[in-house]
Write a structure and sequence with these properties.
The chain is an alpha+beta fold. The protein has one domain. It contains three helices and six strands. Strand 5 and strand 6 form a beta hairpin. The longest helix is centred in the first third of the chain and has 52 residues.
């Protein structure tokens, strides 16, 4: 009687359980991939917004002074540069991008009258490739390029990698 009772018992076989677990694992794996992409896109959006704010402040400085700030002490007075930096065409800012690297600011106040500046991120591994996000560039106080792009070979005027 016990044998008849056990043979009629209904339930899932081991193979059915394994199939269900494999399906669940595939769904979770796909979800994690999309979630990581969502997080990375939000970091890029945040970097674009931060760079655009910094670029607007630099353009306002240009409107007041007729040139972009190019010396570290000018940026220190504004509270945005590290105090251990020396005067250079490429200045590392105190603000950090969403990947934890310092933003960089490059200026070219050349004698010919053309003055340009750009704020960009350091090199990062963004969406599987290494590069910088350059969100805005200004020339003579006017915004030239708006909207971030990922570039691997961007070099501001007069700045070597």
């Amino acid at each position: 009687m016990l044998k008849k009772y056990l043979s009629n018992e209904k339930g899932f076989t081991m193979i059915e359980m394994m199939v269900v677990l494999i399906i669940i694992a595939v769904l979770i794996g796909g979800g994690i991939k999309f979630y990581k992409g969502y997080i990375e896109n939000s970091q890029i959006t945040k970097a674009k917004a931060q760079i655009n704010v910094m670029q607007a402040a630099l353009d306002a400085y240009y409107a007041d002074n007729g040139r972009y700030p190019e010396y570290t002490n000018e940026l220190l007075d504004a509270g945005i540069a590290h105090d251990d930096k020396t005067a250079t065409t490429e200045i590392e800012l105190e603000a950090r991008d969403p990947w934890g690297q310092n933003y960089k600011y490059a200026v070219n106040n050349n004698v010919s009258g053309d003055k340009s500046c750009v704020v960009y991120t350091g090199y990062n591994n963004i969406q599987g490739q290494s590069g910088r996000i350059v969100a805005a560039e200004s020339k003579n106080g006017k915004l030239l390029k708006d909207g971030a792009r990922l570039t691997n070979d961007y070099q501001p005027d007069g700045v070597a990698n």
